[in-house]
Amino acid sequence: MKRKENIFIRNISRLVKSVGNRKTPSVNYLSNVIEEELKGLKRDSRRNEMHRNLFIGIGAVLVVLAFGAAAFMVPTLGNEKNDSSKALVQTDDFLSGPAEIEVGLVPLAIELPRAVYGGTPPITFKVPGGKIIKPSDKLREPFLVPVGVFNVAAGKPVSASDEFPVVGEIEMVTDGDKEGADGSYVDLGPFLQFVTIDLERKYEIYAIVMWHFHKEPPRAYVDVVVQVADDADFTQNVRTLYNNDHDNTAGLGVGGDWHYVESCEGKLIDAKGTKARYVRAYSDGNSSDDSTHFIEIEVFGK
Ligand SMILES: [Ca+2]
Ligand SMILES: [Ca+2]
Q1: For 188, phi and psi rounded to 5 degrees?
Q2: Where in the sequence is the domain holding 201, given as residue range(s)?
Q3: Residue ending a domain, choose from 102, 137, 159
Q4: Quick one: 126 and 59 in the same domain?
Q5: Which end of the chain is more exposed for a tag (fewer CB within 10 A), N or C?
Q6: Residue 233 has what pLDDT?
Q7: Cis peptide leading into 217, omega within 30 of 0?
């Protein structure tokens, strides 16, 4: 390109010089200039053609290389696809691990209060119907629940059949204090009484653990009925989880559950995963006096 420019500049300067000398350039000279320009153009054309051929050649080589690379990559990609299939399976395996744990059962962790009386309480009293579970000197067998279950009643609102208890406050039922000492229980007084816990949304409930009173003398509560429902008034989808009212004096139906002696372990009721928002517990006095007491009710669900 540089050479062509030099030739062109040389010819132009000759023309300008001849005009400057007032000489008419000869026909031969002009034809030589034109001929030389045409040669230059031909050379350029050849050079361009060479460039084009070179580009085509390089392009062809690149295409061949690309096809070769693709042919090499296809099986590799296939392997990668297979590997990713394996990875998916492995991911599924990985996911199925926690899922298995999720559907697995674990012992329910219940934090027990201090025992106020020691040893196994003797049954020195009779309960209506005469059916009472003999107290054991061993701790309760572990109760299995799904992973993720916790006390969904902790701190939840409580209402009661008697909003003005004889002793204590209704809120004590879900305040986490399970001690047997005075100051840890609410006394609702005589007659059939109940407390209702609003869990504030539905839960799958697996266990309800209830402490009425575990101070001396050991005692059993009467007409103990535990129900769950979808509404606060217990008119929708009411289910009875425990009932030891064998003669239906509470008017909630005859119950076949046995009475039990209160202890620091509380009473565990199997709720079998039933779904409910409201939990209600009834009682009508006990083997020592005619009062209904509640220390704490824990509702284990998720
Ligand atoms: Ca309490
Ligand atoms: Ca009864």
Answers
A1: -90, 0
A2: 106-301
A3: 102
A4: no
A5: N
A6: 98
A7: yes
